[in-house]
Write a structure and sequence with these properties.
This protein is mainly alpha-helical. The chain has nine helices and no strands.
């Protein structure tokens, strides 16, 4: 290759650089911005989760007679940290506190929030189960039953069917109660639950005889 060929290639490279350097620089800036932006987002997300965790721990440390302060902390989690699991866990905790005070409306409001906003499907299902029990206490049996529709392959299906049986029995529908209890047994709950379910079925049989 001659000296003139070398100079031609160098000139061609210079011309290409003059024409493309802005695009290359822009791509580099965007790439760096994406990396640092992702790291900043991850850092902010971690900090937010840590703050939510601390608020939740503070909530659980409050004594039972500090319900107003507990509600305030729960509201802060719901308003400012609704995307974290701590908001839903706090609502479940506050619902339990309300149940202990027989504040069924307060418990229902907290559980409704979990059903509507929780990102974890498991927490939603726990909330529905507890909501059905609260509605039962308010003598809203049909509304309670409406909370318990899940497919048979759902991990909570046996618990839902057992509560469905309890509700049907409370309504006086013994046949529907028996059917629900038998289905709960069929779906395979834990051994302790099986004993309890069998006793409920035996009680129904004894009453019928």
């Amino acid at each position: 290759m001659s000296h003139y060929d070398d100079e031609a290639q160098v000139e061609q490279l210079r011309r290409w650089w003059r024409e493309n350097w802005m695009a290359l620089a822009g791509g580099l800036v965007l790439g760096l911005a994406g990396i640092f932006g992702w790291e900043a987002w991850q850092s902010a997300r971690t900090a937010k989760a840590e703050n939510a965790s601390q608020i939740y721990e503070d909530l659980k440390k409050l004594p039972a007679d500090k319900s107003a302060q507990a509600t305030e902390l729960g509201k802060k989690l719901a308003d400012d940290y609704s995307g974290t699991p701590y908001a839903a866990q706090a609502a479940l905790y506050l619902a339990n506190m309300a149940v202990q005070r027989s504040d069924w409306d307060g418990a229902r409001a907290q559980l409704d929030w979990v059903v509507a906003h929780a990102g974890d499907p498991g927490l939603k299902k726990i909330a529905r189960l507890r909501l059905a029990r609260v509605l039962w206490q308010q003598d809203r049996l049909d509304d309670a039953l409406a909370q318990l529709d899940v497919p048979d392959d759902d991990p909570f299906a046996a618990l839902y069917q057992e509560l469905r049986g309890d509700l049907q029995l409370a309504k006086g529908d013994r046949a529907a109660a028996r059917s629900a209890y038998e289905k709960a047994l069929q779906l395979g709950p834990a051994a302790a639950s099986r004993d309890g379910l069998q006793r409920k079925l035996d009680d129904l049989a004894g009453a019928a005889s």
